[in-house]
Protein 1
Amino acid sequence: MSRVVVMDHPLIKHKMTMIRDKNTGSKEFRELVTEISTLMAYEVTRDFPLEDIEIETPITKMYSPVIAGKKVGLIPILRAGLGMVDGMLNLIPAAKVGHVGLYRDPVTLQPVEYYCKLPQDIAERDLIVLDPMLATGGSAIAAIQFLKNSGANNIKLVCLIAAPEGVKAVQEAAPDVDIYLGAIDEKLNDHAYIVPGLGDAGDRLFGTK
Ligand code: PRP
Ligand code: URA
């Protein structure tokens, strides 16, 4: 069964409160999502292996650790996942970015795929799937399945807010994928929106409502 890691850092909790507030406008919302994503990148990369290399300080030679040849791929689920890319790149600047375009049909709630473009060497990369909202889990599961069908074998999922229903669905569909969350909320409402949540993440990021 996959691990579920819920962030407990005060800075993340503070910024999460700000993005939930309906009076926070798109500019501030985008900046906060970037900042939270940078803070989450710190946690998501915690298990990256290290190797010692020899360097020379101004005083003497020493062996000192560096990240051991990790190749990372960031995979935002369009649209809203785009809001998390810059924050992650702040800490993992050499990552390649692949895009998975999905939207949730408002009636069936099923994910509909409309665009996908991945780095060629996806099988060799540690992939970090980005989406602010994990509601029913349908979009995340479809994205993970698409990545696996494309050869990926090492995937993590990073979301800002999840419903318990979505976490359970992803764990059942992809028990090998660890899930990193800013918060787990109470439930889904009748329209499969997360309660209390933050509303429609894409609309709030891009000002489309
Ligand atoms: C939102 C969100 C997730 C999805 C979550 O995207 O960004 O991708 O819904 O819902 P689920 O867990 O029930 O699948 P949306 O479909 O609204 O598209 P958008 O990002 O283009 O706004
Ligand atoms: N998508 C969103 O943007 N918000 C939700 O609460 C659920 C799905």
Protein 2
Amino acid sequence: MKKIFITTPIFYVNDSPHIGHAYTTIICDALAKFYRLDDYEVLFTTGTDEHGLKVEKAAKKDNTDPKVFVDKVSENFINLSKRLKISNTDFVRTTEKRHQNAAKNFWKLLNDKNQIYLSKYEGWYSVRDEAFYQEKELNKKGERFYTNDGEEVQWIEEESFFFKLSEWGEKLLKYFEENPDFILPVSRKNEVISFVKSGLKDLSISRTSFNWGIKIDGSENHIMYVWIDALVNYLTSIDFPKTSKDQFLFWKNCYHIIGKDILKFHAVYWPAMLMAAEIPLPKKIFAHGWWTNEGKKISKSVGNVIDPHAMIDKFGLDQLRHFLLREVTLGQDGDFSEHSFKTRINADLSNNLGNLIQRTLKFVGKNFENKMPFDLQEPKNKDLLSEVYNLFPKVKISMEKFKINKSIEEIFIIITKLNQFMDKAEPWNSFKTNPQKTANDLSVLIESFRIIGILLQPFIPDASNEILNILNIEKKYRKFKFLNFMYKINKDHCIKETKPLFPKYD
Ligand code: ME8
């Protein structure tokens, strides 16, 4: 069986989850579901990043012991995963024993390969990004320095272990050239290449001025830099350092899906450290874009955070998934507004898909006793049904290129055509004059719903499940390999009573 490993970033537990976290998670879930339906064995991990100064500060602010604090906040992320009904196979918390063991072993591997040395770090640090900055990357206002996001950085001076990142620039560039699809989209790859070309400095990978982290064996006054700790989570999930041969096959086809904000860590530091540790690199890193709220950056201080729970309460899970996946091209930024949200879900889900299924199946219920009316003949090249059967290869090509919105668009183009077909067929009229033709037309529609229902499972799982339930398609026949004429719905197959799938919003 083909194998694939899909990962979300692990999220900081300094705050509650918001729409951005839900976005990455939903993308990964859509990919995981897609590949499972295509008969892949899928590992899909997410989790929480629980160490570091930022989390320690949040715990202090909450007047809580850090461990008690992270237990509480990580629960919010676990609950969000449940609410989003995502199909993850693991949830890694960096305070878990298995993770600490993996991180310490990863460090040891780098150390054994002479990639780590002790020195002193003097430079700028952003607590919000948990990142070191060179002065050339910052903006100066008066005596203070700020990141491009406007976050003030602080000067730190402390003893620190360093990773010999500067040795890996050329090797990284060679790898990027030989593996052109390693970093996607291409625009992001170009950013990474110019960052590497501008010269890499050795990376400070331990801190001594606070305690909340994984201690370095033999140098207990040092804790591991939170980004090294965090990146290793991907290996934790495959039981590093005791990764089996089978788990290793997943690793070789691992896709890291991240936001563009953390590209440098995943596309520069992580591959360099993996190369240094002589561990093969994951297959792809895809950096998606950033959501804003009515044109403004989403932030707690602005007070415009979009709570995914509230969105699901108000509009439903499939509606949220559909909007986030369909509205923007993966990789580009998106702007959220209630107006664009309602416009999208009304147009696609209520007026197009929901209306088509509702009016067709109601008619079948009333006039054909809820049974498949006709035994369909294999469609000819130009028939609408043949176009429907040809959807899967198109959807698959787009998915493999991470063009999720294009995949969904392809399906909805067909849904629009099916609505037009229904309008033109006018079963309410033709039924009296040509019942044979009506039966055939309706059967084309019903069989098309089977195909669409199966194809929509990765994107709107609840509604597609409902469609397939109404069509009375057995669970074991809902995989992509059944998307062909051979598994068509036969005449007299019983269909269940239809019900409205998507409410309309004013
Ligand atoms: O960076 N739009 O965690 P984090 C789109 N712990 N995506 C968004 C978003 C927005 N407005 N806001 C957040 C960390 N995200 C580290 C990661 S991985 C080894 C360690 C998503 O809690 C997006 O995926 O700050 C982004 O990369 C991630 O949340 C950052 O989450």
